[in-house]
Amino acid sequence: MKNFLTRAFHLYYDGFREMTLGKKLWALIAVKLLIMFGVLKLFFFPDLLESNYDNDDDRANAVRNTLVTRSNIDNQK
Fold first, then answer.
1. Over residues 43-70, mean pLDDT
2. pLDDT in tens, 23-55
3. What is the pTM of this model?
4. Which of 6, 15, 41, 72 lies 20 to 30 Å from 65 when distance is taken between CA atoms?
5. Alpha-carbon gap, residue 63 to 74, rounded angstroms
């Protein structure tokens, strides 16, 4: 098993090391992921728990109540 993991590591390591165009493509993918998960989160997914509740206990109770309510609705179907 160790030999297999070593060979697999070297396969990918050598492959990435020998890339020319691929490095630019991976950089482009990384930038797109940063934009998707970093920037868009700020604009489209506000932290409602932080703004609507004052402390962690209130936030935990709100999440718990929502989960229980949704669970009860799903069970009634």
1. 88
2. 888 899 999 999 888 888 888 877 888 888 999
3. 0.45
4. 41
5. 16
Concatenated DSSP letters for 17-48? Answer: HT-SHHHHHHHHHHHHHHIIIIIHHHHHS--H
- Four-CA torsion 57, 60, 66, 70, nearest 10 degrees: -140
Give the list of residues 6+ apart from residue 26 with CB closer than 8 angstroms, or none. 19
Q: Encoding tokens for residue 20?
A: 């020319």
Cβ atoms of 62 and 53 closer than 8 Å: yes
Q: What is the DSSP letter of 55?
A: S
